[in-house]
Amino acid sequence: MVLADLGRRINAAMADLTRSNVVDEKALDSMLKEICMALLESDVNVKLVSTLRANIKKKINLKDQAPGINKRRLVQKTVFDELCALVDCQSENGDTPAFKPKKGRSSVIMFVGLQGAGKTTSCTKLALWYQRRGFKVGLVCADTFRAGAFDQLKQNATKAKVPYYGSYTETDPVAVAAAGVARFKSEKFDIIIVDTSGRHRQEQELFAEMVQISQAVKPDQTIMVLDASIGQAAESQSKAFKESSDFGAIILTKMDGHAKGGGAISAVAATRTPIVFVGTGEHIHDLEPFTPTQFISKLLG
Ligand code: GDP
Asked: CA-CA to 81 of 20 to 30 Å: which in 141, 174, 203, 251?
């Protein structure tokens, strides 16, 4: 089920409860049943769905509510809070400050992910996002594996009017990454975004290359790009990447279209890595910051 339908079904289930004459256990159970079914059909993990159900029941606890309490409001707020908790991917160590680039100091952001996930597209989107907020941003193409990778980045960067760096002759991705970052640092860029190779599947070589690039450019933030249409497989994929390149954030792409976004989001939540942005289309402006409350508010319209 696509996300818009999920939102509609959850809303409809809550509206049924609001319309019913009495808010009792029976009405509550029937609403929860419908919400849980909608979540499962959106590919959200079974365990997470049953936790959500138990948490809602526990928090609402109709028997012990004072007579004057607005039960409908209580139900709505509880459902909303638990849906937020479901997609909340903040790191276990909640004290770790989120990455915040500063103007006048060069920050390096390195992108990792499988080929086709949407890395190059997302690099450009993020570059543009920061550029529009007054940062001086440069893009470095460290993908020397795929023929045409540099051309693609160049084309995207030109469209977005973002300066770029790459090489047609250098075959060592670590050398290109280091040279690109050094160039932009010497020119006092605020944010330097490094796009890496994705190859076509998780190979040891690819992971080793990412470690080397990471050592060479010392990123302030490493972002993993993940295709939302892979649903729950997002969990194992992000875990595999996490072991090699210790990324601190995720961009979930292709949240438009027919992606069962619920599956990917809950899978990512299980890895306790924050989703920082979601890609919502092929256009360079189709990037939205991700925060659980905003996402759920939008989902429920
Ligand atoms: P890379 O191999 O990881 O660098 O992936 P690309 O950036 O080349 O993207 C692969 C394909 O996915 C391209 O056709 C992109 O236009 C498309 N793509 C990337 N992000 C999104 C997104 O958020 N929504 C949609 N619909 N397509 C996307």
From this structure: 251
Q: What is the pLDDT of residue 45?
A: 85
Q: Which pLDDT score, from 0 to 100, does residue 214 have?
A: 94
For ligand 1, the distance from its centroid to the CA atom of residue 266, given in whole angstroms, is: 21
Q: In this structure, which residue's CA is closest to atom 12 in ligand 1?
A: 118
Least Cα distance to 51 among 40, 64, 62 occurs for 40
Copy the structure tokens of residue 146. 């795929």
**What 8-state DSSP symbol labels residue 132?**
T
Residues of the chain with pLDDT under 70: 1, 90-97, 201-202, 257-260
CB-based pocket (< 6 A), ligand 1: 113, 115-121, 198, 225, 253-254, 256-257, 279-282, 286
pLDDT of residue 287: 97
Tokens found for residue 67: 């007579």
ipTM of the complex: 0.99
Q: pTM here?
A: 0.87
Distance of CA 224 to the CA centre of its chain: 9
- Where is 109: in which H helix or E strand? strand 107-112
* Inter-residue contact 166 to 156 (CB < 8 Å): no
Ligand 1 atom nearest the C-alpha of 149 is 4
Helix 71-87 vs helix 46-60: angle between axes, to the nearest 10 degrees? 150
